[in-house]
# Entry
Amino acid sequence: MSAKQLIKVTANGRTYERLVEVRMTLADFIRQELDLTGTHLGCEHGVCGACTILMNGEAVRSCLMLAVQAGGAELRTVESLAQGDELHPLQRAFQNRHALQCGFCTPGFLMTASAFLKDNPMPTREEVRDAISGNICRCTGYQPIIDAILEASSELQRKTKEPPV
Amino acid sequence: MKPAPFEYFAPLELPEALDLLERYGEEAKILAGGQSLMPLINLRLARPRVIVDINRLRNLDAISIATDGGLTIGALARQRTLERSTFIQEQNPMLAAAMPLIGHFQIRNRGTIGGSLVHADPAAELPAVSVLLGGEFVLRSKSSARLVAAADFFLGYLATACRPGELLTEVRFPRWRPDDAWAVVEIARRKGDFALVGVALRAALDDGGISQNVRIVMFGVGGKPQRMEQGEALLNGRRIDEALLRELSRVVAEELDPDSDVHASAAYRKEVGGVLVRRALQSALAKAKEPVSQ
# Structure
């Protein structure tokens, strides 16, 4: 079997076909081949959570997968959250609550939180703490991040209750 | 760091996977959930010449009930699937309860039951739980298939009875005994970290509250899951009261022979292990709705 393989993935609704080295991680593939540099790489061994993306709707560490393993999968990265100039409620809440300082870890937190809120739309503070335990932030001390995720959860709940305009 | 070059195969059928494992033997590493292997190859602590990715094998994640009422789980079943499954919660609540203790949810979305067992990290939950529950593992190679008891499978630090060329395909657990008292708990620096000390235990209680068939298995305290035989002997045939719980802590702390590492000293692990066993038993009894007699 060759050292390169052709793979086809859908990322943020767009389909890509690329010939990739089998040893390339999914995280490097997303950044270097798809130019989606919002996904950040911290530790590259599954500890920091900065590279968290959604694969087929589930949050995964993209540094702990090979790109070839994602062949046929549907990926979502942080670039999928905002609609044009309009930030996603999670992003707005992170801004309101000062849930980032340097911002390096933020894409991972946002994707973790977006998967978590889909599973648990109205979490308690304790459940949010648990959900983000796999992501490391060295700036904020986490409290503003928890506040932001709780704020976004209320906002998303309010939105789903509103009748469509 | 980035992985060193390797040859990559992602077979679709089991015989093809077993052919590859036979052909490459010790040069091949099996890639399942990748939550342990990928860090190792990213850091080049492992440089396998060949990777056999089993993620595309069909039906390797099936969950079913055997004719004897036991639970059969395909090696590729994701930890998150087992955690969320109401079927697993009914058929083996202890296994379901162990899942949230493994890493973080992003890890469990990929991590598999088989991968955790074969990696055999001494601080991992599933090896200890499978020893406690009397699990059995189906190991297949191109030319053979064998059943190995969990108690015989774990040999030491990251070492198991799985030979080059063999693939763990299936994990079996005996029929759950719903009346048993049980608990699985651990102490870790932070939630999701590897356990500094952990315990899985189970006991049958008769109508008079006398415990029988006590099993205590500890993890994070040696190279492999450790049965606490003296602790078990202390409890068997006795009514559990406060004095016995205190005695259990003492006996288990004495029985433990852990190593020191950067995270915790051996003395700390002994002390905490004794306390943790007592707490686990108390929580098991509370869950079984058997009041501790004073």
